[in-house]
Structures are given as structure tokens and as C-alpha cells.
Amino acid sequence: MTKITYIAPNGSQFDVDADNGSTVMENAIRNAVPGIEAECGGACACATCHVYVDPDWAEAAGEPEAMEEDMLDFAFEVQPTSRLSCQIIVREELDGLVVRIPERQA
Ligand code: FES
């Protein structure tokens, strides 16, 4: 189990126990975290699962791959640590991960 914290724009915090091997998006959906729509179901084709990775976690979460980078062009208010949460695989090294939900999505 890996702990992930999602923070909504209004400051509400959602602490989730996530299974390793699942995605940050899937855990948001399972736990009804507001603002993660995931319209494409995780196919990296919608950008409605956009999150801001906390800067302290950006390195551990890694850089987006080319396809994700292209899809991030369709996300609102992209920041340097923006990621599509369906492309972040939960693993032990991410225990304690903090991601924020963009204002426009919530
Ligand atoms: Fe559609 Fe992530 S769920 S891009």
C-alpha cells in the first residue's frame, strides 16, 4: 500500500491507500476525489485527469513521456510539475505522494 494525498483547490485533503501497480487516476476515481474526471478511462487521450505533482515529489513521479506531453497541451493552466494522473503508476517509492487538483477541473 502506498499513501497518496490529493488536495482540492479549496484545500480539502483526501488521503488514500493505493495499491501498487494501479494509477494515481484510478485511486482518485475509486475514492471519489473531486476534479478527476478521467473521461478516456486512462488512455492518455483526454487530459481530464490533470494534476500538479507537489514539487517535492516531482522527481520521484518522473517526467511525462512524449504522448503524455502532447496531451498536456489540452489541459488547463499547465505548470512545470503538471502530469496526467493516469500515467503515474503507484509504487512504493511514491509513498506519501502529494498531488493537487487544478482549479478549472474541480
Ligand atoms: Fe484521460 Fe488520463 S484519464 S488522459
UniProtKB/TrEMBL annotation:
Please report the stretch or stretches of sequence annotated as the 2Fe-2S ferredoxin-type domain.
2-105
Name one matching Pfam family: Fer2
Q: Which UniProt keywords apply?
A: 2Fe-2S, Iron, Iron-sulfur, Metal-binding
Q: Name one GO biological process term.
A: P450-containing electron transport chain
Per the entry, which co-factors are needed?
[2Fe-2S] cluster
**SUPFAM superfamilies per UniProt:** 2Fe-2S ferredoxin-like
Q: Which InterPro entries match?
A: 2Fe-2S_ferredoxin-like_sf, 2Fe-2S_ferredoxin-type, Adrenodoxin-like, Adrenodoxin_Fe-S_BS, Beta-grasp_dom_sf
One MF term in the entry's GO annotations:
metal ion binding
Looking up PANTHER family in the UniProt record yields:
FERREDOXIN-2, MITOCHONDRIAL, FERREDOXIN/ADRENODOXIN
Family membership noted in the UniProt record: Belongs to the adrenodoxin/putidaredoxin family.
Report the protein name in the record. Answer: Ferredoxin
Organism (species): Nitratireductor pacificus pht-3B
